[in-house]
Specification:
Layout: H1 3-17, H2 20-29, E1 33-38, H3 43-56, E2 58-59, E3 74-81, H4 90-96, E4 101-104, H5 120-125, H6 127-131, H7 135-144, H8 160-166, E5 171-174, H9 187-205, E6 211-213, H10 221-230, E7 234-240, E8 252-256, H11 263-269, H12 273-283
Helix pairs in contact: 1-11, 3-4, 9-10
Length: 293
Amino acid sequence: MTAKAVLQNVFARGIMTFGFDVASRRLLWRDRVAVLLYHDPKPEVLDEHLTHLKTLCEVIPLNQVASQGNGRPRAAITFDDGVVGNADLLPVFVKHKVRPTIFLCSQFVGRPAVHWWLLPVAKEAGIERLKRMSNQERLAELEKYGVNQIHEDEATGLTAEQLEEMRPFVDFQAHTRFHPILTRCDERECEQEISVCKLEIESMLGIECEHFAYPNGNYTDREVGFVKAAGYKTARTCDLGWNDNRSDPYRLKTIVIDDDATLPWFAAQLTGIPVFLRYVRHARNLSGYSPQF
């Protein structure tokens, strides 16, 4: 176990010892919906998480997030980006009888393309630095390394065959075309990333695409407006919190879960405390809103 994991488990034990986990379920979670956000967890990790989660709450599809509560906490499972490793999770979904939502970047799935932040040159240039640039500046920076918007090499996204195999068990939805930071895009770029992604996913999979997730959790009223105009029914943020039938459907809150979280750390993250403290450190406010670029 790494030093980081040891510290996390010590912190998690403190949360349990002082009863913050029970208090959060009774006072905050109640009969509302916790939308959990993963990216690329290993099957054995997700299996352990879901086994524990189902002792605490009912697991529901994301499209039921606004349904009337039944007095018991509920949770919806979501994944961002549609990376190829998500295909290995299918047996876990089937085993636990959960229907997760995977938000796809439509130009990085179903083809041998690379999610831009997984490129070695992006890591060399500094992923967080690239995120803070305007979208045109980011693309120009990557082009200096010989990388364009669609870098075809190996498939870092789900393949067409994997998408088809998973479709009966997974709700595939939209996460933009190329995963730019929308608030760093100009008007046309932003609108196209949101609206065309919907059309591409519907064409690719023959489904109705109704839900959207803001890349990196960055959004303003402009992005919300484009999401509404494109015909989506909901949009998920990275803002911390729980949801019910009174929540703004275009600003759904979430709880970000570490892909490699040990079981104690997962239980601690369900309280929202670790994410809240991280947001306070980065955003320097107590709102629970995801740090914005």
